[in-house]
Amino acid sequence: MTSPHPRQLILLLFFIITSPILRGDDPANFSLVRLVNADAGLVLRLQDFKHNAPLLLDSHWLKAFRNSPVHAGLCASGDVKKIINAGKHIEEVTGEPLLAYLNTIFGEDVIVALYPDDERSPYGVLYTAAESELALQQSIARWKRLDPQLSVTYKHLNTEYTARRPQNDRNSDSGRLFYCSLGRYFILSDREQAIRSAIELYVTATSTTEQPDSRKSLADTKGYSLAREKLPAEFWISVYFTPHHWKRALGHLRDKNADEPEVKVLNHILMHSQAMMLGLRFQEGVFGQLLIKP
Predict the structure, then answer these.
(1) Which of 64, 65, 195, 241 fits 178 for a cystine, CB–CB 3.0-4.6 Å?
(2) Integer angstrom CA distances of residue 167 from 89, 148, 149, 247
(3) Cα Rg of the chain, angstroms
(4) Measuring CA to CA, how many Å separate 269 from each of 24, 258, 263?
């Protein structure tokens, strides 16, 4: 048996490194934000969640916040209590800390986007990038065991997505949640169209051929791309806001508090801004940087 030629070894190594099948890696230049629609009005992003979340939990700022009246008031609210109880339930069933469970789903990147809707109330979408596709599938399977519900599977552009609702809920549209996994990416919303839109954006971003009538993602907008480029990398939490998507809500705020000087100043800034991005990082305190595109 002859030894392989060095050129053959180099070619084999190149194939292993670049093969998406063997690595389970993302397409070139793909980012979670490419699944977010361009018309998102408010976008909260937490990058490198697995690394940064423990730093936030151990920060002096959070420890001080936990002892504040604001924190006590939040914990007393019904919605926050539900979240706390859900977290305790997950820890009891899995036998591991809640953060360890969340790391498998939120490990690399987390985005919560809020979309305005003129006809209905705004709706939210959760986007996450897990550590790997296998870790994500295991977490979804565990979620189904923890919270068994009725599930129906649909297809859009040859990609499956699922609708889940409580077993004792006779109203098929009440309490429904839609979710989809695209490789190691996970999307969750109570609006079916949000899932279908994310699938369309994923197909557009990963296709080798040009897609007709393709949707535009948030990553393709000048406002977001320029703001993210100017924001230092250490600001791992970012909040992106586009005032023109919230004209109705801002109008109500202005009319209700028209005589207050602070509201007048805030309204002037918002009405003359195309986009705003706030970056945050936590060390000994909270450090922020605000970017405004007039």
Answers:
(1) 195
(2) 19, 8, 5, 39
(3) 22
(4) 45, 15, 10
Beta strands in the chain (DSSP E): 42-47, 109-115, 123-129, 150-156, 159-165, 177-182, 185-189, 237-241, 275-282, 286-293
- Report DSSP letters for 261-294, one per residue: HHHHHHHHHHHT-SEEEEEEEESSSEEEEEEEE-
Are 122 and 115 in contact, with CB atoms under 8 Å apart? yes
SS3 172: coil
The distance from CA 217 to its chain's CA centroid, rounded to whole angstroms, is 13
Whether 269 has a pLDDT exceeding 90, the answer reads: no
Contacts of 204 (CB under 8 A, 6+ apart): 211, 214, 215, 217
Residue 60 phi, psi (nearest 5): -65, -35
pLDDT value, residue 257: 62
Assess whether pLDDT exceeds 60 at residue 3: no
The C-alpha atoms of residue 34 and residue 128 are separated, in whole angstroms, by 12
Count the helix, strand and coil residues of the chain and give each as a percent rounded to the nearest 5.
45, 25, 30
pLDDT tens-place string over residues 172-198: 666 788 999 999 999 999 999 999 999
Q: What is the pLDDT of residue 11?
A: 45
DSSP class of residue 37 equals B
